[in-house]
Design goal:
This protein is an alpha+beta fold. It has two domains: about 90 residues, 3-Layer(aba) Sandwich (Aspartate Aminotransferase, domain 2); about 90 residues, Aspartate Aminotransferase, domain 1, CATH 3.90.1150.10. A four-stranded antiparallel β-sheet has the order 4-5-7-6, covered by helices on one side. Strands 1-2-3 form a three-stranded mixed β-sheet. Strand 1, helix 1 and strand 2 form a beta-alpha-beta unit. It binds pyridoxal-5'-phosphate.
Length: about 200
């Protein structure tokens, strides 16, 4: 997002680490940001960890203090936690060894067709996708924003499908190891739920 100071910051917490079939959304869109925040995929979500990547000019600005001072002092108890760092390094190795970013790129077309097959089902007013991520927007119940989305989330959960909702939007971001038949299963469950949702 471009701020009034011409500063570009990318929130890559969801889009990073292969989800779009590229390392990061910045690479996918060919943008060089000033700053990027990442989490989730950095450890495959196994151990809590987040990171901030910045341009060298910004990094150097923080590194120019007194030699014995802690740069960007926040005092977090778990900063740079060795277990999280080990999980992250192992995750990065597996992404590479198993070619998972490539896999996500290869599945993106199948995923797109699958999620768009929900078009025309009750309550669906918009479907958006990119790489292995999608948003399915449902019409809100008048005066009760978010209720239909939450109902959809619960019904999917009961059937064995874990989704995420932001208001009345169902957010889907499956694991990069997903197989086509899993995608079919997800869409079949969503299809059933959307038809039975009041
Ligand atoms: C796009 C996006 N940015 C940031 C966050 C917050 O991430 P964290 O809890 O790791 O700080 C989330 C959490 O789901 C997210 O989806």
């Amino acid at each position: 997002m471009r701020s009034p100071w011409n500063f570009i910051d990318f929130d890559e917490v969801i889009t990073g680490f292969g989800r779009l079939g590229a390392s990061f959304a910045t690479e996918y869109f060919g943008v060089m940001p000033d700053m990027m925040v990442v989490a989730k995929g950095i450890t495959n979500g196994t151990v809590p960890m987040g990171a901030v990547f910045v341009r060298p000019e910004i990094y150097n600005a923080f590194m120019s203090g007194a030699e014995n001072a802690i740069e960007l002092f926040h005092g977090y108890t778990y900063s740079g936690h060795p277990v999280a760092c080990a999980a992250s390094l192992a995750t990065l190795d597996i992404y590479e060894q198993e070619g998972l970013f490539q896999r996500s790129q290869e599945l993106a077309g199948y995923w797109e067709e699958a999620v768009h097959s929900l078009k025309g089902l009750p309550h669906v007013i918009d479907i958006r996708n990119l790489g292995l991520v999608a948003g399915i927007e449902l019409a809100a119940i008048p005066g009760k924003p978010g209720d239909r989305g939450f109902d959809c989330f619960l019904r999917c959960y009961e059937k064995g499908l874990l989704t995420r909702t932001t208001g009345d939007i169902i957010a889907l971001s499956p694991p990069l190891i997903i197989e086509k038949h899993h995608i079919d299963q997800m869409i079949a469950m969503l299809n059933e739920v959307l038809k039975e949702l009041p």
